[in-house]
Design goal:
The protein is mainly alpha-helical and 191 residues long. It is built from 8 helices and no strands. Keywords: Membrane, Transmembrane, Transmembrane helix.
């Protein structure tokens, strides 16, 4: 549906511009925006490779495992049914740890595995359990210690200090995660 909306917006804009006598300006802006997009993607690729390498070092050095050990007791309190299942809680821990370290590509398979394990624990196949809902909220609002994507984009567009968003990012994502947990726990009582 969103593709259709964007298609009509673009067509309307181009037709309106051509009918308004600005066809040449439209052509020039399309070419210049395409050029700047390619430059941005190429610069982002290099920066993302660097950050993925740094995050892989953190993973291989055991830093992510140390974070996982700290998180496990807290998650066992938050997740009711999954607390007793090592496979489910392990997948949840690995997903959230990978997200915290900015390893979103590595977090995706763990997230899928965690949801599969939570579905296995859920007796009802047609609706999500409280643990599944909480995991989804935590996954979406996960605390980011190193927001690699934001840092990469800021560096690619020439920011003087691309890492200055780390502290505000930690604060914002921590608040989002806490609010998400509180809302889930309140909703569990009423629904």
């Amino acid at each position: 549906m969103i593709n259709i909306i964007w298609f009509f917006i673009l067509c309307f804009g181009i037709c309106f511009g051509i009918l308004g006598g600005r066809g040449e300006e439209i052509s020039k802006s399309i070419i210049s925006s395409s050029d700047s997009t390619v430059k941005l993607v190429i610069s982002l690729a290099g920066i993302m490779c660097l950050w993925c390498g740094v995050m892989k070092i953190a993973e291989k050095s055991g830093l992510t495992n140390k974070i996982a050990r700290v998180m496990k007791p807290v998650l066992k309190i938050l997740f009711k049914k999954a607390a007793g299942d090592e496979k489910a809680i392990g997948a949840i821990v690995m997903n959230l740890t990978a997200n915290m370290m900015g390893l979103s590509n590595a977090a995706t398979p763990f997230g899928i595995k965690a949801m599969e394990e939570l579905k296995r624990l859920n007796g009802k196949t047609d609706e999500a359990s409280d643990d599944m809902s909480l995991f989804l909220v935590l996954n979406a609002a996960c605390i980011q210690f190193i927001p690699t994507t934001v840092i990469s984009i800021r560096a690619a567009v020439g920011s003087k200090n691309p890492g200055e968003t780390i502290i505000p990012g930690i604060i914002a994502t921590a608040i989002a995660a806490v609010v998400g947990i509180i809302c889930c726990k309140i909703m569990e009582k009423y629904f």
